[in-house]
Fold this protein.
Amino acid sequence: MKALIFNPDLSFGVVPDPVPSPAQVLVQVSAVSLNFGEIAFRSAQIRPDHVSGWDAAGVVVRAAADGSGPVVGTRVVTFGWSGAWAELRAVDTAELAVVPDDVDLALAAALPVAGVTALQAVRRLGPVQGRRVLVTGASGGVGRYAVQLAARAGAHVIASVGSPSRAEGLPELGAAEVVHGPANLRGRVYGVLDTVGGQQLAEAFYRLEDDGVIQAIGRAAKEPTVIDFEEAGSRSLRGRIENFNVSTPFADDLAELVGLLSRGELDAQVGWRGPWDRAMTAADALLTRRVQGKAVLTLP
């Protein structure tokens, strides 16, 4: 089958078809979404025939041998830590959700890693009704989902972006305020969903309310975080940082997000969409912050 592989940059190659385990379905892929992390932080030890990719949507062409999961012909969105960027994908039935006919598969493909990460991170803040929640990197894939989901949970959402142009559309998604970096934030916040790391994470920590919490989700800044705890102690008595890692399986959370998308209660925020032979263009746009939200590749 045809697949996108790192050799060393993204290019097409021919690799063996995946062989599903008894608890996996085989999916003919219609669309994949790219994530900043799987490109910027890819391993230097990837095999030449390794198929990367976390997010894909398509149609089941072989049902799971153990009887779990959907039947042949079902439209699905899928997650896994590899194998998405190919014509066929074998995926665990616990890592997929059925996609209704009224939902574009290309939009569904944008949901798994970014959407589920945002959903789980908002939950881990605890009750946020009426509380101030800061989202750093709010213009990115996880960030735009986090703004929407935190606002749905009743939070007063403050979106932090790198430039005024990156703020486009965030108020419509639920951001009550938009700031240019946590250093420009006025007042304190109860919760922080941080996708940037580095200095922005430190600045956000200094601005926590007593007993406030940060979910440290990403490290898009690619720099270490240095915190002056004497400075922090003078502002927040018991603020804390929690290292966020997304939890699997994804099936239930994916189904919840697909439902929101189908009902028009969530916007997939696809900022770049094109055929998969433009993968390098899409990847470069992601790495250089020229995509607002998600980048999606469609297969023939």
